[in-house]
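Sample 3 of the quickstart, ligand magnesium ion:
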Amino acid sequence: MPELVDNDNSITTIDKLSEFDDKSVTIRGWVYNKRSSGKIHFILVRDGSGVVQCVIVKNQVSPEVFGSYDLLTQESSIAVTGKVHKDDRAPGGYELQVEDLEIVHVAKEYPITPKEHGVEFLMDHRHLWLRSSRQHAILRVRHQIIKAVREFFDNRGFTLVDSPILTPASVEGTSTLFETDYFDLGKAYLTQSGQLYAEAAAMAFGKVYCFGPTFRAEKSKTRRHLTEFWMVEPEVAWADLNDDMNLAEEFIEHIVQTVLKKSESELHVLERDITKLQPVKRPFPRLHYDEAVEMLKKTGVEFQYGNDLGAADETIISQQYDRPVMVHHYPAACKAFYMKRDPERPDLTLSVDVLASEGYGEIIGGSQREDDYDTLVKRLEEFDLPREPFEWYLDLRKYGTVPHAGFGLGIERTVAWICGLEHVRETIPFPRMIYRNTP
Ligand code: 4AD
Ligand code: MG
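Result:
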């Protein structure tokens, strides 16, 4: 291995080059592209923090260094030492005038080239595709979104309480359960949502959130369904549906405004029209389910009252506004067993879905929870759910039950919306979908 650790502390990363104007530094990275005019070679190097053009001038370096250019293939790994030079025309505003270059590894012929590739090919090479500038930008935005999520709850007195992944029962209906054998105890299921455990934690801590991977055996192939996705779920004791909606809109505003501030360059790489994100501020419009149905009918959609909103319906509704819209009071028939009913309209639930703007559709599902013991027992029966695995959950209604509410935000749909992507498959490092569990 070549000597990569420099004793005079001049190793740095591309995002820090502005701190070294006119000084000599070493960066370590991968060859993104190269071109030559004969006497001057240009190598575009990326190191994960940025991209910089390295300029090799024939009479300024040793013949070995100058000649090493010919060996470099796309994605070869190198360490380059050179003088930092401010150049407004260069990507990133700086370039490196090369003094020395070490080749760490000459890459084999790289399968992903600047030419067009099909999506399936790129997905098969997801482990390499992550290196491309678009994917890099998307995953950096994802990271920023996750940071904003944690920051939001951590700054507001919420305690993070993790929920288990292997669970004894379903939360969101039995049709999307992943099942596995669990020793002598029978079947276990990959969690569809940490909510039930978050409810238990809310009774212990007041305000909590859980944040982790969740699983749905989604049999449909759509642009917004993964079989494994990340969900953050706050749960708040003493909260009703209105409190829940207030929290949801403040939360989304915080995420979007933080990303606009911190991820400017990534959104630029993605050519995201940020004027579409700037208006995402409180208050969000609130639409009763009945009003949503009216709206659909007015636009000529044939909609059966009582049904859940389909993706196309959500698109129509969300396109009416410049910011997310909160649709509340969905019919009980299309929602989960744990949702509290509207005392005035028992056919409706105290529920809310937040539909992202620009037609992106549902990113949050939430509700006030049924907090009465007898009613919840009845619901389990109505939903044909076995009582035994829910005994502990019923306990929460036996020992100091209080009104409480919460919601779940899907990270991947949020990333797709904020980045302006067609499909959620690019929003997670290694997507899992009905027809894909590799790489
Ligand atoms: O609406 P859902 O099913 O709600 C729940 O799971 C509740 N238990 C949450 C709660 O109240 N604590 O899912 C919540 C969100 C959706 O709005 C969506 O953003 C995301 O999770 N989601 C998915 N994302 C990607 N692929 C899937 N298959 C998803 N299913 C749900
Ligand atoms: Mg939902």
